[in-house]
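Field reference: "sequence" (input) and "structure" (output). Example, Multidrug resistance protein:
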Amino acid sequence: MGVFLQLLINTLLVSVTNFTVWFAVTFWVYLETRSVFATGVISGIFLVMTALTGIWFGSLVDHYRKKTVMQLSAATSLILYAAALLLYRMTPAAEFRDPTSARLWLLVVLLMFGVIAGNVRTIALPTLVTVLIEEPRRDRANGLVGTASGVSFLVTSVISGLLVALGGMLWVLVLALAVLAAALLALAPLRLPGNATEPAAAGTGRAVDLRGTVRVIREVPGLPALIAFSAFNNLLGGIFMALLDAYGLSLVSVQAWGLLWGVLSTGFIVGGLLIARTGLGKNPVWLLLMVNMVLWTVTLLFPLRSSTVWLAVGLYIYMLVVPYAEAAEQTILQKVVPYERQGRVFGFAQSVEQAASPLTAFLISPIAQFVFIPYMTDGAGARLIGDWFGTGADRGLALVFVLTGMIGIFATTVALRSRPTAG
């Protein structure tokens, strides 16, 4: 447990760095260009790269020493952020206000690739839970992982908004380089005990064994349905990623939005601590489905009024229950998947679950910009429901969220009736 906690803290530092860059570049691009489409493309880049790299990252985790993979992940992010800082300093500020600027998008791509490199750790850490923590306590360890994610969101939300307001992306990148360098130095002397020091799949042949991974997944009753259900939820989640910042920034300033996310992230921390204290119960699959029912109900309700209070309360509930969904899925996979294939299965699940989200993120931004926003500003929607729903750009985005929540509730109801059996 002591080694696990050290790994968790080190991963927390790197997560804070990567989340800060991700949040900050989204805030900054929107404030520079005032383009919802641009923020949607940023989300799409992240989700596309997450989907494309998950299987490969999982193979790296299985076939190489996990500590080495984690170090290379941080080093790669460090190099990409350094290149981004150089480009940022060499580019005239006026060029970043043009949403079609090649240098703007080169900067975005460098930053997002640096963030994506950190995803190796999100695959490696749950496999280390398997080998370092006994099975009866793994759900609680997964709860601590959720708490760490909440802490990273808390710190990230506060500092990213403030740093962007103070100096654009300059201080964000300076901080990122400093923290990543510190994390690399701290991880170097750490020694992992026993079989955690060796590759899980040493001597098993091809590094990327997609066919064998799919076979393992198909052999577990209910596991393909579980992954498919999570993929569908992430399809809807892509809408959140593409539009939520634009919606929030239409209601409050960037500083207030960052501080609000800092408060909201305490819900993630509380949820993770509750799991660490009580566990997930005897049926994590049922719990996962009930959590999703809560998530989509919240998504339906909070946009019904153009209110910062409604937004804050809804998102706090959302953040409170998300750790239960993540911990439940991790606990199920740790239990039913052989250790030597866990990296690839976690990576495969990440890729499949994210595969639909890029399509949503890319499509929903122009649809929101050119269909829903005009519809609720001076179109038929404003005349039809504007009296009670409100009118304007933010109400167009709100209507997208309401429809998303309705679809999510319907899908979760269908899944509850089918009752997958994995885990």
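The chain has one domain: 2-187+228-418.
The mean pLDDT is 81.
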